[in-house]
Amino acid sequence: MQQGVMLLDADLRVVIFNDQMGKLLQAPKGAIEFGVSATRMAAQIPILGQSQQADNNQESWLTHLLTRSTLLRQEISVSGRIVSLTSTPVDDGGWLIGCDDISALASIKKDLADQNRRFDAALANMPHGLCMFDAEKKLLLCNAAYCRLYELPESLTRPGTPLWQILDYRQTAGNAPAQREAYFDVVVEAALKGSAASENVVLMDGRVIKITHNPMDNGGYVATHEDVTESVRAEEQIKHMAGHDPLTGLPNRTLLRDKLEKELSFRSGGKRSALLCLDLDHFKEANDTLGHAVGDLLLKAVTDRLKNCLAEGDSIARLGGDEFVIFHGDARTNETASALAQRLVDAIGEMFDIEGQPVHIGVSIGIAIAPDDGDTADSVLRNADTALYKAKSNGRSTYCFFEPAMDAGIQQRRKLEIDLRQAIAGNQFEIYYQPQVNAGTEEIVGFEALLRWHHPERGLVSPAEFIPLAEETGLIVPLGEWVLRRACKDAANWPGDVRVAVNLSPLQFRSPSLTHIVISALADSGLSAFRLELEITESVLLTDSETALATLHHIRGLGVRIAMDDFGTGYSSLSYLRLFPFDKIKIDQSFIRELGESKDCAAIVKAVVDLGSSLGITTTAEGVETTNQLDRVREHGCTEIQGYFFGKPLPLSHVEKLLLERSPPSPADHRDEPVRP
Ligand SMILES: Nc1nc2c(ncn2[C@@H]2O[C@@H]3COP(=O)(O)O[C@H]4[C@@H](O)[C@H](n5cnc6c(=O)[nH]c(N)nc65)O[C@@H]4COP(=O)(O)O[C@H]3[C@H]2O)c(=O)[nH]1
Fold first, then answer.
1. Which of 92, 105, 280, 554 is most deeply buried (CB count within 10 A of its CB)?
2. Which residues form the EAL domain (predicted)?
């Protein structure tokens, strides 16, 4: 748009003007004419006579012209438009007046001012520190968070403050000059290079600041400073948690594998190291009996003892449950590893005192040597685990080095263990019943429940193979309970007072709920207590006999009969007869087998039967297969007989048939021929 122009002479009369002047000021016709005085003009164009905000002044255009001879710039509002009026004194005492419509410019200026206000507010309120330096490394601006972060005095936050002054201040404010803060190295380095940089730096007071530095086009730079102390700590915590066991604070499997991989790949000069896999013996029982809180304390106490056994260069991890692993960094000879293993066995074998409760456990250890037994973390771990398996089957609380020959047998056993776990869930078990007859009348007085496993691939698996494994793994506890409940239910349908005998494993006696399980099996099935007989071996009384005896008394008090199985095979069968009033003694089949050949066996059977009769205890001869054996056990006075001669263990359906006939079984013609299972 065209500019309005007007020239006034020294008497302030119009000398030159253009039409645009009148239009912009909305002057009435004739108000701006050649020769018209400024006073008259101001009278006809009111805005010229009114006071206006101008430069830092508040006076009217006319007053200024009449009283001063300096440049005057005014922005005047004319019917909603903004008009800029510039009055410039000229040499002869006159004035050159220019006039522009600056409405559009004024709106831009206003937007700009608004935007600046918003920008200031954002800067002041942003949580991160921000600073901007020019190419000479002089401060252009910084926000409040930046000042707070570095505790800068106000004097150092003014525009123009050189960077070095801030650096000097931070170096000397409470910090020894020699301890130059890393922050400044990052900033200065990036500033000198003119490059972008983002880095976490640790201040002298421990705070971690993330500095992001970006160069600007004019050679300066802008940087944000964020206090990331909390998030860095949280990240470190999460990282720690991902690699450690929360209960004991020890490294976990993940961290162990990483460490092992590193150790094994950096091994130099034929260095040998040993990996020891540890598994606590009887931990599960302690945990089940004493509760998980005590179990946790026990694991912590175990961790302390294990740590105390370590030498420099050894490290320990917990894989979970009661499994630990120790890396023995320098096993030049097997002796150092076996000495360490022995120390560990001894330390864990000593009684623990957990909140006043004495707890006795042990540890079994498998050892593999790297590189002899493997040179990757997985192979060494696997082989140490195989050796551990062997140590456990050798009787626990011992250690064992890996040998390649172990692998096949143990893999097979491990497969069986996996199958056994699945078998419980998959209903692959069945109970067979073997008759027990009265030695005189040959009437069936009861049946012994004997477990059978129908393996989906291997067919029928003998209990001699899977019961020891179930005992080792603790699976005998749920399995034994299943047998007890099933046998009670089956027997409840048998006629008269035919009894059922169920084998109980020592492990079942460690469970505090055994008595309750017996009561509930009887209640659920409706079987009378006197028709249930529980068979135990002397091993039940070998460990913690007081608790076992108390449980036995409790169960016998219900009316359940208690039989001592495999009598004569242990060392203390006789002494246990004094400890508990057994209802029955089952003479082990090894004595019956040799009755004809060995005088000793005959003497033992006779002695046991006599003892039984004087104590009023039934004696059962086990494993009677021939007429000859039958005659002899009868001669000696055995009261009951069990063996293939009268029947092998049979499925339930056959038992029911046999009982229906209810007649004493007629011995076969070839009675003297042993009947093979
Ligand atoms: N050669 C020969 N053997 C005879 C004769 N009469 C009986 N037997 C066998 O002798 C074993 C007697 O059972 P056990 O001594 O309690 O010995 C049992 C018992 O200790 C254990 N077992 C079986 N079922 C269970 C169970 O449910 N729980 C527990 N804890 N153990 C069980 O497995 C062992 C072996 O059981 P089975 O193989 O069924 O073997 C049974 C039976 O089949 C005979 O005349 N000649």
1. 280
2. 413-663
Between CA 191 and CA 184 the distance in angstroms is: 10
Give me the phi and psi of 35, to 5 degrees please: 90, -10
CATH 3.30.450.20 corresponds to the domain 4-108: yes
Ligand 1 centre to CA of 478 (Å) is 19
Rounded to 5 degrees, φ, ψ at 670 are: -95, 45
Token digits of residue 271: 């260095």
Q: Is the pLDDT of residue 170 over 80?
A: no
In the chain, where the domains are located: 4-108, 126-232, 248-404, 429-661
Question: How many angstroms separate the alpha carbon of residue 490 from the centre of ligand 1?
Answer: 19
Q: Which protein residue has the closest C-alpha to ligand 1 atom 44?
A: 623
| Alpha carbon 130 to chain centroid, angstroms | 40
**CATH H-level, domain 126-232: superfamily:** PAS domain (3.30.450.20)
Of the listed ranges 172-176, 211-215, 360-364, the one predicted with least confidence:
172-176
Instruction: Please give the average per-residue pLDDT across 152-181, as a whole number.
Output: 74
What is the per-residue pLDDT for 675? 34
pLDDT bucket at 322, cuts 50 / 70 / 90: very high
Q: 183 versus 657: which is more confidently predicted?
A: 657
Global ipTM: 0.97
Domain 248-404, CATH among 3.40.50.360, 3.30.70.270, 3.30.70.100, 2.60.40.3080: 3.30.70.270
Nearest of 218, 598, 640 to residue 437 by alpha carbon:
640
CATH T-level topology, domain 429-661: TIM Barrel (3.20.20)
Task: Give residue 657's identity as a one-letter amino acid code.
Answer: K
Structure tokens at 470: 């179930």
pLDDT in tens, 88-101: 999 888 999 999 99
Per-residue model confidence (pLDDT) at position 520: 96
The beta strand positions in 150-304, using DSSP E, are: 197-202, 208-215, 221-227, 273-281
- CA-nearest of 583, 592, 582 to 643 is 592
Q: How far is the CA of 475 from the centre of ligand 1 (A)?
A: 18
Burial (CB < 10 A; 0-12, 13-18, 19+), residue 656, is middle
- Ligand 1: residues whose CB is within 6 Å? 434, 449-451, 462-464, 467, 476, 480, 483, 503, 505, 565-566, 589, 623-625, 642-644, 649, 677
- Summarised one tens digit per residue, pLDDT across range 462-476 is 999 899 889 888 889
CB-neighbour burial class of residue 412 (10 A; exposed 0-12, middle 13-18, buried 19+): exposed
Q: Which residues, including other chains, have CB under 8 Å from residue 572's CB and lie 6 or more apart?
A: 538, 541, 542
**Which carries the bigger pLDDT value, residue 634 or residue 512?**
634
**Which value, in Å, is the radius of gyration of the alpha carbons in the chain?**
50
CA atoms within 13 A on the CB side of 314: 20
Contact 436/446 with Cβ under 8 angstroms? Answer: yes
DSSP string, 510-532: HSTTHHHHHHHHHHHHT--GGGE
Three state DSSP letters for 129-150: EEEEECCCCEEEEECHHHHHHH
Q: How far is Cα 564 from Cα 120, in angstroms, rounded to an integer?
A: 93
pLDDT score at 33: 93
